[in-house]
Amino acid sequence: MTDFESRVTVNKPVGEVYSFLADLNNHQQLMPENIYNWTSTADEARFTIQNMAKLVLKVNNRVENKEISIVPAEAAPFDLELKWVLEDNGTTTTAVYKIAADLNMMMKMLVSGPLQKLADSETTSLAQILS
Question: Could you write out the DSSP letters of every residue in 84-124?
Fold first, then answer.
């Protein structure tokens, strides 16, 4: 597995950050501009990444105020897991977004940059939305 990670401190208590992230309907706000055809429920999201692939993701596991794990609900171009890990700092929360992807050498060369940009974009957007 190849790992991509981005970390941000959000000026909100952990319960508020967790509530936002636990509902996949809110994740559209975190996505970069090259995402379209978004439909979602609290537990599942369907969207298309421009010039890449269609994805259907679902929440695999929620640990209240600590972690949300998201995995493909249908066949994806490669195995992956998206995970938000939250650290309670009292009045602020550290949010770490992790993407673990099973990539062969060719895929790694093609998607490493976009996956790291996705991780960075989502954490930046989270901090802006919840500030």
Answer: EEEEE-SSSEEEEEEEEE---HHHHHHHHHHHHHHHHHHHH
